[in-house]
Amino acid sequence: GNKHKIAVIAGDGIGTEVMPEGVRVLEAAAEVYGIDLTFDTFEFGSCDYYLKHGQMMPDNWKDQIGNHDAIYFGAVGWPDTVPDHISLWGSLIQFRRDFDQYVSLRPAKLMPGVPSPLAGRKPGDIDFYVVRENTEGEYSSVGGKMYPGTDREIVIQETVMSRVGVDRILKYAFDLAQKRPRKHLTSATKSNGISITMPYWDERVLEMAKSYPDVTWDKYHIDILTAQFVMNPDRFDVVVASNLFGDILSDLGPACTGTIGLAPSGNINPERKFPSLFEPVHGSAPDIAGKGIANPIGQIWSGAMMLDHLGHTDAHDGIMRAIEQVLLSKELRTGDLGGTANTATCGKAIADAV
Amino acid sequence: GNKHKIAVIAGDGIGTEVMPEGVRVLEAAAEVYGIDLTFDTFEFGSCDYYLKHGQMMPDNWKDQIGNHDAIYFGAVGWPDTVPDHISLWGSLIQFRRDFDQYVSLRPAKLMPGVPSPLAGRKPGDIDFYVVRENTEGEYSSVGGKMYPGTDREIVIQETVMSRVGVDRILKYAFDLAQKRPRKHLTSATKSNGISITMPYWDERVLEMAKSYPDVTWDKYHIDILTAQFVMNPDRFDVVVASNLFGDILSDLGPACTGTIGLAPSGNINPERKFPSLFEPVHGSAPDIAGKGIANPIGQIWSGAMMLDHLGHTDAHDGIMRAIEQVLLSKELRTGDLGGTANTATCGKAIADAV
Ligand SMILES: CC(C)[C@H](C(=O)O)[C@@H](O)C(=O)O
Ligand SMILES: CC(C)[C@H](C(=O)O)[C@@H](O)C(=O)O
């Protein structure tokens, strides 16, 4: 289809500053590529909302946004007033769970004009995807405390993996690898230390691989895998990982390419039973919030991924070209990339380039 | 004391190749610094032993090595014949648990002659310790499987943190930070995702910090912390982390300094109720085993840490100077560092330099 209703949730901190630029670029792309986009803005899913209402979202949040074609999300969290495990679990993580967005998809890519902290790497050298399981695993809320307040105090938290949950993320990752030129998959494990869930993960990878004879694959323990991201990032094509390991790898990957401030992510329900959610990898960044200097590219790149998901690959590619063009100009890059632009200047430039 | 009985367990793969060099250097240091070292070698704790006896260690292993002053360990694991979770849990991890070696201590340090994968860093720029909880946390063997072999199959594994376990590792880390010039501690958390155990960890850090008013401290979520290791490794002084997070950070730290092939580690029981164990961070490396080309410096540096632990700081410093001297010569470095030496040449050179 050509008509899409987008739910916009800016959240907290710099989320509220980069979101307008994201929407600006999407509107430009909609015009150029003839897409009919409607934006509905929601106040909930922010710490401000929590302070007013005592909960992160209204009881009927699902009715309000469940029928949108996608959710365009900024960043959530303001640890000084609301503990992270309340703000996140009451919004972002609840979307991921209730809308069964079981794939988190995050690219790590060396971009022109973006200095990498790694020595001797240039654009083209590093280009891989982290596919993260997004609904179970280490992020369970199952567990509790015993003997509270005493010397014998213990806390327990369970990691839960289901066959359904593991197989569907592996399938998505193998499918993605199969579509890419190198057709290579890397699985993150830790079966030598995490002795129950991780051997199970390995077992399911072995099983799934049988259905993809044209995809080569290997596995690394998470400790040495993080080391390999730094030492040999060019080895990777598609990296599939559990919820926690994927969380780590999808920050570390963009850190290695210098793109942590501009990396995008998709929280995807591949069956399209529920809306998928697109958000920058960066958080609400209380330290720079309110200054208008945040880099809007993570938000804008996430918007491009959203259009791709909605079937508009041409619009996605157009936005990506505009981003790469603007990145080459010092006047149009933000300060984190050694440029002189503020959030709005950079966003406008990308919209114009589209 | 001046007399120490060392239990030597070489293990598998390159463990058996680097161990003789480690012992050679220790013997040289013993002579120079007037230390009386006795070495007792044990065959168990290796996959060879497992294949012969059906278990990694004899039933009376504790009697055999429990009265030694320290254990000098190589590397264990041979995944083609023995699954890692058997070989590791039946040796290394059992030592850590049964000898209550609750501190894993691992330095990340830029060394002369060792190229770092990070751009623009030089010796002196990076110099920190990772202090890892080594006996509980994510490495529990508690859990299991339900509905095996069906579509409803689930596996569960528990993370267990005790107040005793968390407090004692934090105390060790704060004590260490207090002794260092910068007196700074960083705590690794993930309380925004791992919603039960990690907020508890944070709570205990806050509490412990009150007893160390002269130590400054901060905390990072593990995802962004791995990114910071790559982007700003000079920020860190002492980094304290749970078992899993510490495992990751103590591979990633040395990867950033280019020293992953030569990083040492101590598994320490600070109360000296049980022997502590010293081993290189690298594993048994089946891919290069049997060729005599492995870098022995991880084993040798671990030996230096062992002497330090036994009270011989002068001998530790002497070995470290010898390592730094040998690293500067291409003929004496191994191939992983662009040198031309084999394992034995490098080991002998360090022994001579001592
Ligand atoms: C081999 C493995 C069980 C071990 C661990 O994870 O503790 C290793 O990675 C280490 O860091 O010593
Ligand atoms: C904010 C936090 C709960 C979240 C996560 O860990 O999933 C974030 O780090 C991310 O990667 O989207």
From TrEMBL, chains A, B:
Statement: the UniProt record of this protein carries the keyword Metal-binding: yes
Provide the catalytic activity annotation. Answer: (2R,3R)-tartrate + NAD(+) = 2-hydroxy-3-oxosuccinate + NADH + H(+); (2R,3R)-tartrate + H(+) = (R)-glycerate + CO2; (R)-malate + NAD(+) = pyruvate + CO2 + NADH; tartrate + NAD(+) = 2-hydroxy-3-oxosuccinate + NADH + H(+)
InterPro entries in the cross-refs = ICDH/IPMDH, IsoCit/isopropylmalate_DH_CS, IsoPropMal-DH-like_dom, TTC_DH
Q: What does the UniProt keyword field contain?
A: Manganese, Metal-binding, NAD, Oxidoreductase
* Gene3D superfamilies assigned to the protein according to its UniProt record, in alphabetical order: Isopropylmalate Dehydrogenase
SUPFAM superfamilies listed in its UniProt record: Isocitrate/Isopropylmalate dehydrogenase-like
Q: Which cofactor does it need?
A: Mn(2+); K(+); Mg(2+)
Role? Has multiple catalytic activities. Apart from catalyzing the oxidation of (+)-tartrate to oxaloglycolate, also converts meso-tartrate to D-glycerate and catalyzes the oxidative decarboxylation of D-malate to pyruvate.
Q: What is this protein called?
A: D-malate dehydrogenase [decarboxylating]
